Amino acid sequence: MTLRFYDTREASVRDFTPVHPGEARLYYCGATVQGAPHIGHVRSALVFDQLSRWLNYRGFKVTTVRNVTDIDDKILANSSLSFDEGYAGEFEREEWWALAYRFEKVFAQAYSALAIAPPTYEPRATGHIPEMFALIQRLIDRGHAYPALDDSGDVYFDVRSWEEYGALTHQSVEDMQDAPDADPRGKRDPRDFALWKGYKVGEPFTASWDSPWGRGRPGWHLECSAMAGKYLGETFDIHGGGLDLRFPHHENEMAQSTAAGYGFANFWLHNGLVTFEGEKMSKSIGNTVSPAQMLEQARPLAVRYYLGQAHYRSVLDYSPTSLAEATKSVERIEAFVAATAEFHTEDAQVPDAFAQAMDDDLNIPQALAVLHESVRAGNSALNKGEDVSAIAAQVYVMVRVLGLLPLMSVSGAGASNAEHTALDSLVQSLIEARATARAEKDWARADEIRDSLAAAGITVKDGANGSTWSVA
Question: Is the per-residue pLDDT at 366 higher than 80?
Fold first, then answer.
């Protein structure tokens, strides 16, 4: 089956044909590092991690770029209010770049905890000011941008100069809200958005750069267009991000890039939002849940499974029982993978039904149904003493493709941490001692070893080809 994805611009599922044969180039919006990540940030990164893993499995050379917005109005505002615990309760201004870097590391920790693979490259906006100058000048030269009329140093995109403005979100200019990024008095139209923001008294001088239009800093939308073009080319395959970014961010990105004469993204993919028992998460309501809080309640394996189990375009609803349910579901899979570790092979292929689901707009729920059915069939075969090698190999490659394997406590699953290596060595030595006791018909000693492992939370399963273990 041909790979097919839902393209927001076309509002339909289309066949995926790469710009460069054999390659897949993907850009998705990363963190604006004004504060700690919320569930929506992590869900979005996980969705595009799943997509990247599947494209890679399908044989594409995958290049992923995920930006870091490290200069922004909210970053500047939050830096002036940040609390420094080193000053005994006093409030101290934190440099904006220090705050941005501090939260960038928090995002990185959340991604790593859930085995979200690092992108091919993760550029920061502040490292691409020359590319932004070039894009602004190109838009001015083509008649789609202009310096502000009030000598503020701002530069705006002229939305009425580009007939295709609104094509991504299927709305007319007349129906759009005003762009809130600058005082409208310097604009030809209140909907025109800022490409460059002139320096204002009171802002940190370090948060501005000399430009042909005066000292200032880039507008949010401009940053992504410049970075995507630099690393993926004038036309690339997929641009992704959360549904909340469609307007104005992605609409404006597409407008300024195409108005500059570039093809930009062939597909626009947007993941759905996360709600709390059917309601939008909001700090004012007090119903937000952070990745850190989720990781306090459940293993990273269960959190990843929960955040990645719904179709990427659907709303993911969170309730107090969500992680417990996810834990039960994924640990059944983990137990089977642990019990069949001897059959793991990198050469196995996923079942046809799994591949068809993933090819069809990354249908994770349907793919998970295939995975669970395979586990049920595998457990049935184990109980009957039947050959389970083929099913075990397929399950192994499915959990690997879904990014679950690195988080599983499975002997032989490729975990690289020192703790697991040490534990595996100790448990294997006890399993060998138990095997010796059984061979010598020392049943009391064999039972004693098994009971001691069980008391430590280790489950041992005996098979035709020996014994395997897993964390209960």
Answer: yes
